[in-house]
Write a structure and sequence with these properties.
binds iron/sulfur cluster; TIM Barrel; binds cobalamin; 39% helix; six-stranded parallel sheet; seven-stranded mixed sheet; 2 domains; 18 helices
């Protein structure tokens, strides 16, 4: 079979708490999920597989659809977040119309919650869905489709048969991540990948663990089984990437810093092998200390992203964040001391949060003085505790994500918990960005940390969008005009 895996263009964006314009500017970040899947299919040596990742390639809508048609796929697999469902539907409609024999399979976070709704969609045809991790199930599914054998015993997939919908029990998680082959980055035009905050080198996404034992109420990955790869295998993967000219690594683990010993070994190995890479990680403030930070710095870590969320311990407890203000301050302080840049995330408008608490959080962001701050309005993601509580407590007028999954439409906007009126929250978000970024010292710091004229122009563009939201054209090239 000819299999095309797609990360579709952002033609019908849904706002998720940050200005959409920012999401479009953050860089060409390759979809690791699709690369893992493509590698698994490739390894079967039975099917021809290709990736069309529009986060990497800046294509016009015509070029994008031409690429799909020219590939002549027997099956198209599309990665789907609930926030990108409209984009996915747009592509499915195109394929249903132009390539009516091509089968469609959707996978990704949206399917964890809404498999049945997706297979039942009216006016478009989705043939299969994969719930959860796809490296084992997707290749099995392709084989069975080709041979016409029964799909009954493939865990975690959904399909239609004789007008009925079948959802097989959810896949048990892949126990050993070392049993999955890491992807060959040449599966995508990897030389085009970069991050706006990167070091100007070719960048790739990489993962050393999956899952997170914590239970933050707003997170889709909360309380998922933590599994970690063998550190030597990770180093081999990095070595392979370096041999391709990749020197900037974007670790997308939910919780990179869970096991101190693992991190220290990882750093030592990177140094011993002379792998002169640069990388950025995300960490919880309660999982790092001075020793880890020193080693991370020596090994090439140039930035750490922290979920600070709020300056109020009361709000942190509402979010079940399980961190303290002291840990936050210490983590940011020690990170700077170790010579690593910091990126702090803040949430505005958490349940029961007052305007005073939000203003305190904005002051706190200035006080912490990280290199970057990201102020997002609390948006309930499907499947999260925040969403479930909002429905139970009647904060939301309906199960709006489910209704959207059953009947996706362009005007969909997720409801918010709204501890304050919507306009006031949006105003506070702009105020936060202005207070944080409109300071000469931030500008100077950024100037000194910029590698090229091109990167400087990109940063200025994002800064203008943050400081003056709503005055910008919110889309790429000709995509939006080309809805089907
Ligand atoms: C890296 C990342 C990003 C990158 C995207 C990079 C990229 N090209 O993929 C950036 C920073 C751009 C991003 C943006 C956003 N993100 Co994001 N992101 C992630 C993160 C941290 C890792 C994704 C990843 O690579 N995982 C590792 C791979 C191996 O897993 P995977 O992608 O899920 O793929 C596996 C399976 O899902 C499945 N699968 C996936 N696709 C397909 C397709 C087929 C056909 C099949 C069969 C199987 C399959 O098989 C894969 C292998 O096992 C996840 C958190 C997480 N733990 O996944 C959040 C996450 C996916 N993001 C999320 C959100 C909400 C967003 C934003 C909307 C946030 C925002 N602030 O605006 C935007 C949307 C941008 C957009 N329009 O696309 C949510 C999604 C929630 C939901 N239910 O929709 C998540 C889960 C975060 C969370 N903790 O809640 N994100
Ligand atoms: S926000 Fe981070 S720490 Fe909290 S549950 Fe999600 S992945 Fe874990």
């Amino acid at each position: 079979m000819r299999v095309l895996l797609i990360s579709p263009p952002n033609v019908e964006p849904i706002r998720a708490g940050i200005p959409l314009e920012i999401d479009e500017e953050i860089g060409a970040i390759p979809s690791l999920g699709l690369m893992y899947l493509a590698q698994a299919v490739h390894d079967q040596k039975k099917h021809e597989v290709s990736i069309l990742d529009t986060r990497i390639e800046d294509l016009s809508y015509e070029e994008y659809t031409d690429r799909i048609v020219t590939f002549k796929p027997d099956l198209v697999g599309i990665t789907t977040m609930s926030f990108t469902l409209n984009n996915v539907i747009n592509t499915v409609q195109f394929i249903n119309k132009k390539l009516p024999k091509t089968l469609i399979c959707l996978g990704g976070p949206h399917l964890k919650n809404y498999s049945e709704e997706t297979l039942k969609l009216k006016n478009i045809r989705v043939d299969y869905i994969v719930k959860g991790e796809g490296e084992k199930t997707f290749p099995q599914l392709l084989d069975r489709i080709e041979t016409g054998e029964s799909l009954e015993d493939i865990e975690g997939i959904g399909y239609k048969k004789d007008g009925k919908i079948f959802i097989n029990p959810t896949t048990s998680l892949i126990d050993s991540l070392d049993s999955i082959r890491w992807p060959d980055r040449r599966l995508v035009p990897y030389k085009l990948c970069y991050s706006i905050l990167g070091n100007g080198e070719i960048m790739t996404t990489i993962q050393t663990s999956r899952g997170c034992p914590y239970n933050c109420i707003y997170c889709h990955e909360a309380r998922s089984k933590y599994r970690r790869r063998n550190v030597y295998d990770v180093i081999d993967e990095i070595e392979h990437c370096v041999s391709l000219g990749i020197k900037d690594f974007f670790f997308i683990d939910d919780l990179f810093t869970l096991n101190k010993q693992w991190i220290l070994t990882f750093c030592r190995l990177l140094i011993e092998k002379g792998l002169k890479i640069k990388f950025k990680i995300s960490a919880r403030v309660n999982t790092i200390d001075g020793e880890i930070l020193q080693w991370l710095n020596k090994a090439g870590c140039y930035r750490i992203h922290y979920g600070i969320e709020s300056a109020s311990q009361r709000v942190l407890d509402v979010l079940q964040k399980k961190i303290t203000l002291r840990q936050q301050k210490e983590a940011v302080f020690l990170t700077k001391k170790a010579g690593i840049r910091t990126f702090c995330y803040f949430i505005l408008g958490s349940p029961s949060e007052t305007k005073e608490e939000i203003l305190k959080t904005i002051d706190y962001a200035i006080e912490l003085d990280s290199d970057y701050a990201h102020f997002a309005i609390a948006v309930p993601y499907p499947g999260t505790q925040l969403y479930k509580d909002g429905i139970k407590e009647g904060i939301f007028s309906c199960d709006f994500w489910r209704e959207f999954a059953e009947n996706p439409h362009r005007d969909f906007k997720p409801q918010l918990w709204l501890s304050l009126p919507k306009n006031e929250l949006a105003g506070l978000q702009t105020y936060a960005n202005k207070r944080f970024y409109n300071r000469p010292k931030v500008f100077l710091r950024e100037l000194l940390n910029t590698n090229s004229m091109q990167q400087l122009c990109r940063k200025i563009r994002v800064a203008l969008k943050l400081l003056f939201p709503g005055r910008h054209d919110r889309r790429h090239g000709s995509l939006e005009k080309q809805k089907i």
